[in-house]
C-alpha cells in the first residue's frame, strides 16, 4: 500500500515556480528578450516564439515590481510600430486630390471614378493598419495577461489592449506627424458624396472605417464619446445640410412639385439605407431630421402652390400617388407644421372650387331670366294614348324654358357639390389615410361655401324632391337611396336647418297630396334619416303629415260605405283631411274658391259625413291642391283631362257658354272668387301652355285683367288622356324667397324667446354673456342666431315681464 502511494507521487507532474531573477542586470536582460519578442509579434513572426517563455518574462517583471517599466515599455514599442505603419502603409495612399470642403458634386465621369478609387485605396490602407495593429494587440494582451490582472488594476491605468486603441487614435487617426485625420474624414465624406451623385463606391470599405471610428473613444476630458460622433458625424451632417439645401433650390427651379417630392422620398430612403449599411444607426434620426429641415420645412408653401404641378393640379388630375406622397412627407415636418399647411391649402382649394360652383348657379339663374325664374310648368307631363287612369305616363322634358333652367340649375348645384364631396372623400381615404384632422378641414371648407349660397336649403330640398317623386329616370332604388344618404351629409353642413325644414315640408306636402311619391318607404326612410340627425321635434310634423294621409285613405272606404247608405253622388270624390298644425302654412292657408253648382252637392254630402263622425271640427276646403279627371268633348274627339281642381272649376264655367262666346277675366274671377295669383296660374295652364283647351285673346303667355277666354273646340291631340298640371313654383322667385325669409325670421324670433325662457326658468339668474352664449349653443343645431336677435328678444321678454334686470345691470332674473 505504501509503495503504491509512493509510485503515485512519483508519476504526478509538478508545476515548477518561475526562476528567480537576480539583480537589475537580469531585469534588463528580461526586458530585452521580451521587447524583441514584441517586435517579432508586430512583424507577424509570433509562430517562432514560445508563449510560455515570454509570458513568464512579463510575469516576473510584474512580480518583482517592474510593472511600470514593462507597461511603459510596451506603450513605447506600440507607438513606434504605429508610427512606422503610418509612414509605410497609409501616407503613400493619401488621395492626390485631397478632400473637398464644399457641398457640390465631386466631378463627373472619369474624374469621379478616379476619386472613388483613390478614396477606396486610402480607406483600405487605414483598415489594413487597423487589422495589423489589433491583431498584434490581441497577442500582446495574452502575453501580458498577468500585467493586466495585477499591475494595471493596482496602478489604476487602462489594460494594454485599451492602451493600444488609444495609441491608434493618437498615432494614426489624430497623428500629429501626418494629416491622416483630415484625409480620413474628407475621404469618407467624399465617398458618401460620390454615391449621392450616382457613382458606385465600395460600401464595405467605408463601413469598415466607420466601424473603426465607432470603436475609438476620446478622453473623458473631451467628452468621452467615440470618434465617429466627435469628429465625423458633425462634419457629415454639416456637409449634408449644405448639399441638400443646394439641391432643394435646384429642384424647385425645375417647377415640378411631384418630381420634387419623389426626389425627397428617394433621398430619405437612400440616407436611411446609408446609415444602416455603412454609417451608423446613431446618425439615422439626425440625418432624417436634417433632410426634412433642408428639403421640406422651408419650402412647404412653394411645393403646395407650385404652378402647374402643385396641390391644385394634383387634385384636378386625381393623382392619388402624388397626393399620398405629399401627405406622408408633410407629416415628417416637426410640430405638425406640414399638416397644418396642407390642411390650410386643401381648405382654400375646396373653398375656391365651391365658389366656382356657387358662381355657376348664379350664372345659370341669370340665364333663366330675373322675371320668370322659379316658374315651372308641370304640364309637360303627358300620358301615352290609352294610359292608365292614374296618369302614369312617360315624362317628357318641357324644354329649356326659364323655369326649367331654374330647376335644372338648382339640381345641378346640388349634384356638383355631391360630386365634389365624393371626389374629396376618395382623396381623403386613398391619399390622406382617412386623417381626422384633414377631414375636419375638408368639412369646414364645404360648410363654408355651401352656406355662402343662401339658397342651399331650398336647392337641397328640391334635389331630394326630384329623387323621391314619381318619374325619376334612370335611377334604381339603390341609387336613390345612395343619393339620399349623400344629401344627409350636405344637410349636416347647413347652418339654416330650420329653413331647409320649411322647404322640405312644402315639397313633401305636394308629393303626398298630388300622389307623386315614388315610394312610401323611401319617404319614411328619408324622414327617419332627418330624425336621427335632428331629433323628434324636427320631424314631428312631417310624421303627422303621413298620419293624415293614412287616416284619409282609411276614411275614403268609410265614406263610400256612407254613400251606399245615404245615396250616391254623380262623380267619384276623394278627400284628404289635413291637420292644420302639421302641414306648412302655404298649404293650409285659407284659399277662397266658389266651386260651382256641379261640385257643391258632393261637397255638402262629405261635410255631413264628416260631421257625423266628428264634433267640434271645422272643415275648410282647399281647392288649390286637388286634382280632377274630367272627360271633355271637342269637335274632333273627346279627351280625358287630368287637371287641378281650380282648373276644373274654370272649365265648368264654359259648359253653358255658347260656341264663339267668351268670358272675361273679371267675369271668371267673380264666378270663381279665386285669388289673382291662383287664377292667373290656372288660366296660364289652360290657355297659354302646350295643351291649350282655352284660347286667350289677345294671344300671349302672360294673363292680364283685360284678357278674354273662350273654349277651344278645335283642340286636337293624338293622346287620349292628357295631364295638364297647374303652373307651380318649384324654385322660388325673388318675391317668394323674401316671403319665405320673413316667415323664417318670424319663427326664429319665437324660437329664440322660447329658448331664453326655457334657460332662465332652469337657471333663475344668469349673466348677460352667459345667457347669450347658452341660447346660441342650444339653437345652433337649427340655425345660428345673431347676437342682436338674442338681445332684442331679451328686451322683448323684459317688456312683457318674463325677465328683469338685476341691480348690477349685468345679469337677468327670471320672473315666475
TrEMBL record:
Pfam families referenced in this protein's UniProt entry, alphabetically: Cullin, Cullin_AB, Cullin_Nedd8
Keywords from the UniProt entry: Isopeptide bond, Ubl conjugation
GO BP of this protein: ubiquitin-dependent protein catabolic process
GO cellular component, one term: cullin-RING ubiquitin ligase complex
Cross-referenced InterPro entries: Cullin, Cullin-like_AB, Cullin_CS, Cullin_homology, Cullin_homology_sf, Cullin_N, Cullin_neddylation_domain, Cullin_repeat-like_dom_sf
Alphabetized SUPFAM superfamilies for the sequence: Cullin homology domain, Cullin repeat-like, Winged helix' DNA-binding domain
Stretches with biased composition (Basic residues): 9-19
Example of a GO MF term: ubiquitin protein ligase binding
Chain residue ranges for the region called Disordered: 1-27, 361-400
Highest taxon of source: Eukaryota
Residue ranges constituting the Cullin family profile domain according to the UniProt record: 455-687
Family: Belongs to the cullin family.
UniProt name for this protein: Cullin family profile domain-containing protein
Protein species of origin: Kwoniella newhampshirensis
Amino acid at each position: 500500500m505504501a509503495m503504491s502511494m509512493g509510485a503515485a507521487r512519483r508519476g504526478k507532474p509538478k508545476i515548477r515556480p518561475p526562476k528567480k531573477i537576480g539583480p537589475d542586470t537580469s531585469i534588463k536582460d528580461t526586458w530585452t528578450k521580451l521587447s524583441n519578442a514584441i517586435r517579432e509579434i508586430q512583424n507577424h513572426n509570433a509562430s517562432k516564439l514560445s508563449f510560455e517563455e515570454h509570458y513568464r518574462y512579463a510575469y516576473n517583471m510584474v512580480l518583482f515590481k517592474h510593472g511600470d517599466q514593462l507597461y511603459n515599455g510596451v506603450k513605447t514599442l506600440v507607438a513606434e510600430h504605429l508610427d512606422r505603419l503610418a509612414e509605410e502603409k497609409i501616407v503613400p495612399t493619401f488621395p492626390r486630390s485631397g478632400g473637398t470642403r464644399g457641398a457640390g458634386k465631386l466631378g463627373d465621369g472619369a474624374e469621379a471614378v478616379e476619386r472613388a478609387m483613390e478614396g477606396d485605396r486610402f480607406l483600405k490602407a487605414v483598415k489594413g493598419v487597423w487589422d495589423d495593429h489589433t491583431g498584434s494587440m490581441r497577442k500582446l494582451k495574452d502575453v501580458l495577461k498577468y500585467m493586466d490582472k495585477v499591475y494595471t488594476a493596482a496602478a489604476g491605468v487602462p489594460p494594454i489592449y485599451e492602451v493600444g486603441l488609444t495609441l491608434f487614435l493618437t498615432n494614426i487617426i489624430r497623428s500629429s506627424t501626418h494629416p491622416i485625420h483630415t484625409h480620413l474624414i474628407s475621404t469618407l465624406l467624399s465617398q458618401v458624396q460620390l454615391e449621392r451623385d450616382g457613382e458606385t463606391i465600395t460600401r464595405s470599405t467605408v463601413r469598415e472605417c466607420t466601424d473603426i471610428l465607432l470603436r475609438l473613444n476620446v478622453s473623458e476630458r473631451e467628452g468621452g464619446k467615440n470618434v465617429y460622433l466627435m469628429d465625423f458625424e458633425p462634419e457629415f451632417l454639416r456637409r449634408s445640410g449644405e448639399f441638400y439645401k443646394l439641391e432643394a433650390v435646384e429642384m424647385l427651379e425645375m417647377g415640378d412639385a411631384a418630381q420634387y417630392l419623389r426626389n425627397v422620398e428617394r433621398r430619405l430612403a437612400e440616407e436611411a439605407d446609408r446609415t444602416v449599411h455603412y454609417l451608423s444607426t446613431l446618425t439615422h434620426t439626425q440625418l432624417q431630421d436634417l433632410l426634412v429641415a433642408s428639403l421640406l420645412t422651408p419650402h412647404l408653401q412653394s411645393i403646395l402652390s407650385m404652378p402647374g404641378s402643385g396641390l391644385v393640379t394634383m387634385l384636378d388630375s386625381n393623382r392619388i400617388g402624388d397626393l399620398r406622397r405629399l401627405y406622408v412627407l408633410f407629416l415628417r415636418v416637426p410640430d405638425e407644421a406640414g399638416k397644418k399647411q396642407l390642411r390650410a391649402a386643401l381648405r382654400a382649394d375646396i373653398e375656391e372650387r365651391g365658389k366656382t360652383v356657387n358662381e355657376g348657379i348664379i350664372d345659370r339663374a341669370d340665364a333663366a331670366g330675373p322675371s320668370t325664374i322659379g316658374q315651372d310648368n308641370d304640364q309637360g307631363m303627358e300620358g301615352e294614348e290609352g294610359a292608365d287612369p292614374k296618369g302614369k305616363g312617360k315624362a317628357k322634358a318641357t324644354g329649356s324654358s326659364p323655369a326649367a333652367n331654374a330647376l335644372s340649375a338648382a339640381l345641378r348645384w346640388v349634384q356638383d357639390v355631391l360630386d365634389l364631396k365624393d371626389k374629396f372623400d376618395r382623396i381623403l381615404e386613398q391619399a390622406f389615410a382617412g386623417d381626422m384632422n384633414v377631414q375636419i378641414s375638408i368639412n369646414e371648407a364645404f360648410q363654408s361655401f355651401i352656406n355662402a349660397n343662401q339658397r342651399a336649403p331650398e336647392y337641397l330640398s328640391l334635389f331630394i324632391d326630384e329623387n323621391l317623386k314619381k318619374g325619376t329616370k334612370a335611377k334604381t332604388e339603390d341609387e336613390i337611396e345612395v343619393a339620399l344618404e349623400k344629401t344627409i351629409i350636405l344637410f349636416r353642413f347647413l347652418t339654416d336647418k330650420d329653413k331647409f325644414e320649411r322647404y322640405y315640408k312644402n315639397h313633401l306636402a305636394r308629393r303626398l297630396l298630388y300622389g307623386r311619391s315614388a315610394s312610401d318607404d323611401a319617404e319614411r326612410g328619408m324622414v327617419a334619416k332627418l330624425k336621427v340627425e335632428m331629433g323628434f321635434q324636427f320631424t314631428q310634423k312631417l310624421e303627422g303629415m303621413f298620419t293624415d294621409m293614412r287616416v284619409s285613405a282609411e276614411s275614403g272606404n268609410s265614406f263610400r260605405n256612407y254613400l251606399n247608405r245615404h245615396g250616391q253622388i254623380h262623380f267619384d270624390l276623394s278627400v284628404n283631411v289635413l291637420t292644420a298644425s302639421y302641414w306648412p302654412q302655404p298649404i293650409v292657408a285659407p284659399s277662397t274658391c266658389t266651386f260651382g253648382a256641379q261640385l257643391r252637392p258632393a261637397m255638402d254630402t262629405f261635410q255631413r259625413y264628416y260631421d257625423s263622425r266628428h264634433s267640434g271640427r271645422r272643415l275648410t276646403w282647399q281647392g288649390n291642391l286637388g286634382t280632377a279627371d274630367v272627360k271633355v268633348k271637342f269637335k274632333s274627339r273627346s279627351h280625358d283631362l287630368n287637371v287641378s281642381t281650380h282648373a276644373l272649376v274654370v272649365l265648368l264655367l264654359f259648359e253653358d257658354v255658347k260656341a264663339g262666346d267668351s268670358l272675361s277675366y273679371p267675369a271668371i274671377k267673380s264666378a270663381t272668387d279665386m285669388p289673382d295669383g291662383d287664377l292667373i296660374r290656372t288660366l296660364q295652364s289652360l290657355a297659354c301652355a302646350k295643351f291649350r283647351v282655352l284660347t286667350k285673346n289677345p294671344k300671349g303667355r302672360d294673363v292680364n285683367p283685360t284678357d278674354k277666354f273662350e273654349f277651344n273646340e278645335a283642340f286636337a291631340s293624338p293622346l287620349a288622356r292628357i295631364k295638364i298640371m297647374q303652373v307651380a313654383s318649384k324654385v322660388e322667385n325673388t318675391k317668394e324667397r323674401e316671403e319665405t325669409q320673413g316667415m323664417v325670421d318670424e319663427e326664429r324670433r319665437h324660437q329664440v324667446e322660447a329658448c331664453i325662457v326655457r334657460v332662465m326658468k332652469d337657471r333663475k339668474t344668469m349673466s348677460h354673456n352667459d345667457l347669450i352664449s347658452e341660447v346660441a349653443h342650444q339653437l345652433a343645431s337649427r340655425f345660428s342666431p345673431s347676437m342682436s336677435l338674442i338681445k332684442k328678444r331679451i328686451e322683448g321678454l323684459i317688456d312683457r315681464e318674463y325677465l328683469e334686470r338685476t341691480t348690477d345691470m349685468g345679469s337677468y332674473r327670471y320672473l315666475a
